[in-house]
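Fig. S4 source data, part A: sequence.
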Amino acid sequence: MFTATIASFVMIEESGGEMKQIQERFDRIERKWTRLPTWWTRMRNYAADRISRRRSRAIVYAVAVILAGCGSSSSSPTMPTTPPVAGLVCGEERWAVKTLSDPDVSRINLAQIVPTTISVLNALPPHCISLPENRMFAEEFQVFEVTGRVTIVRMEEDRDYHVVLADLSSPADTMITESPDPQCEGVVSSPQLSLLQNARQSLLAISGGRPASLMGQSVRVQGVGFYDFDHGQTGKSRSCIELHPITRVERVN
């Protein structure tokens, strides 16, 4: 049954088939479940979007989740207890760049750290709209180090820890730094997976497992420059540059 399902998904992708057929396949799976997990809706929407752009990678992920969740039994399928090999579906916009899984990641000199300030990064020429999917701007090939006071810490819907820093000398200047979840798609396939894992673990370690406890504390953060779309995010810099992902973080006494 599921071999046929896989073949059908691939056939649809390769032939540029109709979204209606994809919808029907998801519907058949959903009728077997009495209660849908929240991640299913997100995965379904994500897969549909990627299929419409003829990206087979999303189909492989969708099928992996279906197989893991449904099995071959005629009884109600059980939910997977571990994330599929492809990683959890977490984010979308410029996601490969955010997670160091893009084709140009090898061009980043991770060993060369550029000390700077949050105010200096705010003053860069802004890149807030019409951004490409690929890594493009010079700052996106550099690792910066800044020190700032934590004003916001929270986990976003894409499972990133969103940490806003204020410049120590000019608190009105702020910027976003982000630590992605090592279980997410993109991160799991990044050649810098261990670096991202260590950074995430360091964030948890310096906060005693409660990142929100860093509020008001001074931290030193290293991370890869990244320009994000201006969508009203809290704490964004004027230039829309972020340190995304964080590659190192420590408290400052």
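Fig. S4 source data, part B ends here. The beta strands are 113-115, 143-155, 161-167, 174-179, 218-227, 241-251.
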